[in-house]
Amino acid sequence: MGRFIIRRTLYAIVTLFILSLTIFTVIRLTGDPVTVMAEPGAPAEDLDRIRAEWGLDRPLPVQYLSFLKNIASGDLGKSFNYEMPVSTLYFQRLPNSLELAFAATLISFVIGIPAGLISAVRVNTVWDSAGKVIALFGLAVPGFWLGLVMILIFSVWLGWLPTSGQGGWQHLIMPAVALGWYFAASLLRLTRSSMLEVMGSEYIKLARLKGLPGYVVTVLHAFKNALIPVLTLAGVNLVIMINAAVIIEVIFAWPGIGRLLYEGIFQRDFPLVQGVVMEAGIMIVVINLMIDILYAYIDPRIRLTK
Amino acid sequence: MAFVTEQIRAALAGAPPSVADRRRRWLRLTRELPLLPLAILIPFVLIAVFANLIAPYDPTEPIPGAKIFEPPFWMQGANPAALLGTDFQGRDVLSRLIFGARVSLIVGVVGTIVAGSIGTTLGILAGYLGGWVDQVIMRVTDAWLALPALVFAIFLATMVGPSMWNIVIILGAVYWTRYARVIRGEVLSLREREFIKLAEIAGASRWRVIRRHVLPNVMNSAMVLASLTIGVVIIAEASLSFLGVGVPPPEPAWGSMLADGRSMLMVGDWWLTVFPGLGIVTVVLATQLLGDWLRVRLDPQLRNL
């Protein structure tokens, strides 16, 4: 177990290293970052001043090493516009993104898990087909368009819900549905296939042979085990929702991390964009590492085979 | 199967197939074809290709004499010259939708080809060569997979600057990772198969083994993945254009049309938002259905993907 944790942690560090190198390279390769930061047509002295101020006049390897050193010490740079450390801004917005992501996770559970369960129990029936249609639309209808249509129906036409902003549950429901929509479809498909797999296993046959009623077998024996991969996916989804809800947060004026990224784009605040992207990467790598370790702890086969 | 029917046909050469035979064959073909997706995708491709012939107006210029935000033809106060109304600059919405189809098609197809080529190549190299090549490629794949695809694409688009071809490259660079994972896994098991080993023993070079024996055997999976990636890429392009880092104005893209229509949504001008969205949904739905069909036809093992 100890060796497994060490190896996985090393992988995670390598992943973050490559990620930082990618971000660093993209910024330098795609043109002079100074021209992105400065006003168009700014005089050369201004550009030089900015370059010196941000340490961009140093050789590239030196710049990269100091970038790495800063990341390692939790310093993701300073926002050009807010004149604040990016990590401070990130953690200021984090609670809002968490609120939205948890609500969206709840929505995806409420739609995805029961629908997937019914599809699996009534496999190849009308119920299963209905599940397939939901899954298909989950992929094909972009969440942000769904959000716009919901604003049109529930805010503009019916006047039931506020169009944007943060407040009570009325503010939360539409962005949560728009964000959770896609993930509901992915949970549906996984619940279905995971249930089908479990239902075909030996211990379920045994439970049936013992003469247990059908719903006891389905719910207590099968569903409980089928839920393990589903919950793992939900965990991964949650982290993605926290960091990647950019358009939904823009549409509903939700003050989360996605909107912070959007502001960074629009104000040409490249340290902010770079920092938020790096922070999202760190969060996802760390959560994945934790899930891996947790799995290996629960299931010895994983840590022995790999 | 095709091989057998070819033989039978060769044996029967000279005797033309009867009308009933021909009809039966035709019926079977239509039953096997994915009719719904094709019924959507063929018109979509035709519209995209012949956009400049079909569209009534220049999509980037206002219609002379038209007002802004004119409603579609069945509503009160509509302008008969603009069937689906006009946008915030008085441009024809229908023409913009038609040219937007072209943008979606180009970005969707070419972006998928770029992603598929990068991913398949790296997947084959990692799986077949193994060792440090495998390690390097898979660690990069892991790192690129760690970022949510959309956040990564937004980051790249912000840095590179908006243009349609930049978006194609960016989406290709973001979405290759899934191919690399899947193809590598397939190559790992292919490598252990007899025919590959025999080719190696017979003295075929690595390059020849890859080209003649490995690549043809992973093409099916690559095609299935590609059919499923097109829809994802089309939505990603719409998202980038919506955020203003995709296809730059005045070029018509469905995503930026949605963004343009957003402010008018609040006063109930729904058509500016609904039409481009319906375009995206219909096309992506059709590509997904086509992908499902291909998956069942080409690769039963991928059915649970």
Please provide a brief summary of the model:
Chain A is mostly helical and 306 residues long. Chain A has helices spanning 2-29, 33-37, 44-53, 60-72, 86-121, 126-140, 143-157, 169-199, 202-209, 214-244, 246-251, 257-266, 270-298, 300-305.
Could you describe the 3D structure shown?
The complex is a heterodimer of chains A (306) and B (305). By secondary structure, chain A is mostly helical. Chain A contains 14 helices and no strands. Chain A has helices spanning 2-29, 33-37, 44-53, 60-72, 86-121, 126-140, 143-157, 169-199, 202-209, 214-244, 246-251, 257-266, 270-298, 300-305. Chain A is flat. The termini of chain A are close together. The mean pLDDT of chain A is 84. Chain B is mainly alpha-helical. Helix content of chain B is 72%, strand content 0%. In chain B, α3 (35-49) packs across α5 (93-129), α5 (93-129) packs parallel to α8 (164-190) and α5 (93-129) packs parallel to α12 (271-298). In chain B, 44% of the residues are buried.
